[in-house]
Amino acid sequence: MSAAAVAAGICWTGAFGADAGPCARGEEAFAARRYTPAQEALWDCVLSASPDPQAAHHLALTYRETRNYDDGLRRVDAALARSGKSVDLLYLSAYLHFRMRLHDDSLRLLGEAYRMNRSDWRVHQLFALNYVVLDVKDGALAEFQTAIALNPRNAELHYQLARFYYSDNRIAESIEESNAALALFPGYPEAYENLGLCYEALSDRQRGVENFERAIAETEKLGLKNEWPFVNYAEFLIKQDEPEAGARALGRALELNPASAKANYFMGRALRRLGRNAEARTFLERAIKLDAADPVAYFELGMLLMRLGDRAAAKPLLDRFQEIKKSAARSAPK
């Protein structure tokens, strides 16, 4: 579960019983992070033609948490066939296609929704997210800025723009947008995590530590099962030549998600730095099994075996590292 979904529901404070309407029941369940009942109630709300666009937005976010995308597409296709096109239904369909990495279809549906309502912030946000994945940087920035102009008090929009700026190495702007998100949602762990990454990029160790540790504290306070604050903090600590502290953070990450390829990879790196080579090898081999398309674990394990004198075992790993890197370079946007 993501903090973004929590951020989206923080303003809902109602207390409704079984006699409440579907919109109220759906919002209450969403705010309580009960995403399956929220999904059912919010579907009833949207199909009743709720005038509040937040209902369809929160319905979309329930699919980000439950990941039952195929079921969602069947329901939205049936609703479109039965009720005709509406911005809410087109947005929902576009969102599900986006989550399923069907970006051409998502953009086509967003175009239809945009022609029906050019001032819908959800449509502009989803355009931006598609453009980020497709590496259309100018389009992503313009759409994020439009969405924020239409809905300036949405913390997630500011956070997403902060991440865009960070990925584009615009660190000062990323810090500004992270702080804008925190002004709206002071307990936003992912915004603190992004600030940690920003201050790492600025070589500001103290602020990096402060923000990574705040991200972890807020994640635990919200009860989120999210290993990434620990993984990113551990990577930071390893780069700061603190592999033992990094390994402790990674132990917590692996408690939350033993199948995290990145947590296994960085644990391998940390243990190799600590001279615990046999354990490092186990974690690096596990990282490769979990994500065979990520080149870094091949390189790390290959170099470990080279230093241990096992060149025969190291060579195919280092060759595979080069193959994946070359393939990625060929397929990268020009």
Describe this structure in words.
The chain is mainly alpha-helical and 334 residues long. Helices cover 77% and strands 0% of the residues. It contains 19 helices and no strands. Helix 5 runs antiparallel to helix 6, helix 6 packs parallel to helix 8 and helix 7 packs antiparallel against helix 8. The radius of gyration is 22 Å and the shape is globular.
Which helices and strands appear, and what pairs or packs with what?
Elements: H1 3-9, H2 22-31, H3 35-47, H4 53-66, H5 69-83, H6 87-99, H7 103-116, H8 121-133, H9 137-150, H10 155-167, H11 171-184, H12 189-201, H13 205-221, H14 228-239, H15 243-256, H16 261-273, H17 277-290, H18 295-307, H19 311-331
CATH class of the domain at 153-222: Mainly Alpha
Mean pLDDT: 93
Biggest beta sheet summary: none
- The share of residues in extended strands comes to under 5%
Record field, number of beta strands: 0
Structural class call reads: mainly alpha
Order of helices and strands: HHHHHHHHHHHHHHHHHHH
CA-CA gap between termini: 35 Å
CATH architectural grouping of the domain at 153-222: Alpha Horseshoe
The whole-angstrom Rg is: 22 Å
In CATH terms, what is the fold-level topology of the domain at 153-222? Serine Threonine Protein Phosphatase 5, Tetratricopeptide repeat
Instruction: Choose one word for the global shape.
Output: globular
What is the number of helical segments per DSSP (H or I, 4+ residues)?
19
Specify the CATH homologous superfamily of the domain at 153-222. Tetratricopeptide repeat domain
The helix content is over 70%
Low-confidence stretches: 11-19
